[in-house]
Design goal:
By secondary structure, the protein is mainly alpha-helical. It is built from 15 helices and 2 strands. The protein is flat, with a radius of gyration of 25 Å.
Length: about 300
């Protein structure tokens, strides 16, 4: 006698076979590399390999925390990502609503294309654009300042201005991509609700506030949850290519990922780098559990699980 499980396997055998490549891909590239986490607890040496290296317990974690850099890079990573999430969310939703309200078809298409274009630039290109804009001697900004009789600004030695510049470059590159999601969500809203609101005399702002934003709420929550899951992961491409290896700016711009990279490349501390990465993953995992739990209590249908 066939059990329900066996019957389901037979009934959905075609779809299950189609699923095998995806499962193998995830297992091979997502789960098998997790075995390397064992290096966080070892004195790794090339000659002995991962399994043959001596155990070090939590010494690699202890070295990271007593170095005095743990709090700085963790604080920078969380604060930058929190600001990125809030600023990008507000801009993406606001611009998507504005575009949806514009009647000109060609203007809508051109504005979407212009905003979406920076997403395809690599961070290397963005770093080059930033350098050409902000270079002390030949940068566009300083050239304009000198043209108007003002003093040049040495951006690459002024730490206080970089949090604003990084937020700007992050928004410039990623807002267009997020706008596409919210525009798609707006297009799926039942137009009869807008027609009913117009019949009742609602103006544009009332329709946006009482219909569009509530309908966008599930999309906003899901995309924010996915972003919060990476709140302890700094965007290495952004921070390394725009800032470079500039020690003058590390106090305000160094994040966990750039710190791990320098530890690995400059001091060859593979064990400590693995320990920091492990610490980072645990924080991300706990964060997504906590935030998802909060969302589930507030609105069960909007939670990821």
């Amino acid at each position: 006698m066939k059990t329900p499980f066996i019957r389901d396997l037979i009934s959905y055998r075609t779809m299950l076979l189609m699923l095998i490549p995806s499962v193998l891909f995830v297992a091979l590239f997502q789960y098998v590399p997790m075995l390397g986490l064992v290096m966080a607890f070892k004195h790794y040496t090339y000659s002995k390999g991962i399994l043959g290296s001596d155990w070090s317990g939590i010494e690699n974690f202890r070295f990271f925390f007593i170095s005095g850099d743990a709090w700085r890079v963790t604080r920078n990573t969380v604060l930058y990502n929190a600001v990125f999430i809030v600023i990008n969310l507000v801009l993406q939703v606001g611009i998507a609503i504005l575009i949806s309200e514009i009647k000109g078809r060609w203007f809508k298409k051109i504005s979407q294309s212009v905003m979406f274009l920076p997403y395809f630039f690599s961070w290397v290109v963005v770093g080059s654009i930033a350098y050409n804009l902000l270079n002390y001697e030949h940068g566009t900004v300083n050239t304009l300042l000198r043209t108007f009789g003002m003093e040049s600004v040495n951006f690459y030695s002024t730490t206080g201005i970089w949090p604003y510049l990084l937020v700007f470059f992050s928004a410039w590159k990623s807002v267009g991509y997020g706008v596409v999601f919210y525009l798609a969500a707006i297009m799926s809203i039942d137009q009869e609700m807008y027609e009913a609101a117009e019949t009742d005399g609602a103006n544009v702002f009332q329709k946006v506030w009482h219909i569009t934003i509530p309908c966008l709420k599930p999309t906003m929550i899901i995309l924010t949850l996915l972003s919060v899951g990476h709140i302890f992961r700094g965007d290495f491409g952004l921070f390394y290519n725009v800032i470079g290896n500039n020690g003058l700016l590390f106090a305000n711009t160094d994040v966990i990922d750039t710190y791990v990279y320098r530890s690995l490349v400059q001091s060859n501390e593979i064990g400590m780098s693995a320990a920091i990465g492990f610490f980072q993953s645990i924080l991300c995992f706990v964060t997504i559990l906590v935030v998802n739990g909060i969302v589930r209590k507030a609105d069960k249908d909007s939670a990821l699980f």
